[in-house]
């Protein structure tokens, strides 16, 4: 018998829609455990083999917070509402993140975030210089973002990118989640990352060597990323008060809301996590943005075109416990 039969059939479409949530490296580390009452689900995070170059589990908790928010925003689209209670207990490699109760809502109230959450997407194309509207700026500030001109972070992003390519753990993570097939249910392909055949060859060389030892190669690879970053009209630093799991989970919810509102107002979003991931550059981002704890960095702007391919997702059945 399929383990889908443990899920309340009325919830299948909603839970499937929630799987469109973003995750670092498109790793989709979430696991969902349906309980016998048919309305409650445990949301777990599988720590095993996830992202070795995420030692503080920052990306992991952000991803799980984004997932919870994605689920909550999708609920009214299917005639439901959710009640999400953070838990955070750990048992070996398994982290029980939150308890989610789904209940029917005959009169769901839907706003722009509910309408746009299914269309949220990462856009890694070039952005125009069209400035952000005041409405978008205010929304992003409301969700704990500090906005900053990308040029102010140029050196730091270059340093972070070069350090990343020199770092065997970073390259190992990429190699683990890199997929040659466009049909793979998780991970990312060159097409998805919008990188040229030449850049793909270089990446494969890095996978083979374990890292880019030569500064020239590090710089070569980083320059395109940095020029894309600085060409955007704005960068946003998502902030939090500390790095506790529950704080990062809340920040993940803000990350998702920021992303959806950016897309809803006609703009695009592209994360640049490296500058926060690198221990040497994260404090520099904090200093330039004048924030205590930066937890995510992204560029925001009007993209010149839509993404050519869309990321895939695992099936609901495969993420059920
Ligand atoms: C916490 C987090 C960190 C991410 N960091 C990066 C990043 O540094 N660079 C990047 O290109 N995409 C990054 N992404 C985007 C994911 O790769 C993307 O969400 C995933 O591939 C699914 O694609 P989609 O967002 O288009 O649905 C990040 C996403 C999350 C949630």
Strand order of the largest sheet: 1-2-4-3
The hetero compounds bound to this protein are: flavin mononucleotide
Q: What is the approximate shape?
A: globular
Q: What structural category do the secondary elements indicate? A: alpha+beta
CATH architectural type of the largest domain: 3-Layer(aba) Sandwich
Helix fraction?
25-40%
CATH level-4 homologous superfamily of the largest domain:
NADH Oxidase
Q: What is the rounded distance between the termini?
A: 14 Å
Question: What is the H-and-E element order?
Answer: HEEHEEHHEHHHHHEHEHHE
Task: Outline the structure in words.
It is a single chain. The protein has 321 residues and is of the alpha+beta class. The protein has two domains: 3-120, NADH Oxidase (3-Layer(aba) Sandwich), CATH 3.40.109.10; 134-301, 3-Layer(aba) Sandwich (NADH Oxidase). It contains twelve helices and eight strands. The strands form two sheets. The protein has a four-stranded antiparallel beta sheet, with helices on one face. A four-stranded antiparallel beta sheet has the order 5-6-8-7, with helices on both faces. A hairpin with a 2-residue loop joins strand 3 (80-91) and strand 4. Helix 1 crosses helix 2, helix 2 crosses helix 10 and helix 5 (154-166) packs antiparallel against helix 9 (215-231). 41% of the residues are buried. The model has no long low-confidence stretch (mean pLDDT 93). Bound molecules: flavin mononucleotide (FMN).
């Amino acid at each position: 018998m399929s383990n889908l039969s443990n899920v309340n059939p009325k919830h299948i479409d909603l839970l499937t829609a929630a799987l469109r949530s973003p995750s670092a490296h498109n790793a989709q580390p979430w696991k969902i455990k349906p309980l016998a009452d048919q309305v409650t689900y445990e949301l777990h995070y599988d720590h095993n083999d996830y992202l070795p170059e995420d030692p503080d589990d920052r990306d992991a908790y952000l991803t799980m917070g984004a997932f919870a928010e994605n689920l909550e925003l999708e609920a009214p689209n299917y005639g439901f509402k959710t009640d999400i209670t953070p838990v955070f207990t750990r048992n070996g490699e398994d982290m029980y993140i939150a308890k989610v109760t789904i209940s029917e809502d005959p009169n769901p109230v839907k706003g722009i975030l509910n309408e746009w959450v299914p269309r949220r997407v990462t856009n890694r194309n070039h952005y125009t210089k069209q400035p952000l509207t005041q409405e978008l700026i205010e929304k992003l500030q409301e969700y704990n973002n500090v906005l900053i001109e990308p040029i102010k972070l140029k050196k730091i992003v270059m340093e972070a990118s070069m350090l990343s390519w020199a770092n065997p753990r970073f390259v190992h993570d990429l190699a683990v989640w890199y997929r040659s097939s466009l049909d793979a249910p998780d991970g990312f392909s060159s097409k998805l990352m919008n990188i040229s055949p030449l850049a793909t060859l270089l990446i494969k060389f890095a996978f083979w060597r374990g890292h880019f030892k030569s500064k020239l190669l590090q710089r070569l690879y980083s320059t395109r990323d940095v020029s894309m970053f600085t060409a955007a009209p704005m960068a946003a630093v998502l902030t939090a008060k500390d790095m506790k799991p529950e704080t990062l989970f809340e920040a993940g919810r803000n990350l998702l809301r920021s992303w959806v509102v950016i897309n809803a107002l006609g703009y695009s979003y592209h994360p640049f996590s490296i500058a926060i991931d690198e221990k040497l550059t994260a404090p520099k981002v904090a200093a330039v943005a004048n924030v205590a704890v930066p937890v995510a960095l992204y560029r925001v702007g009007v993209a010149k075109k839509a993404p050519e391919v869309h990321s895939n997702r695992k099936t609901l059945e495969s993420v059920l416990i």
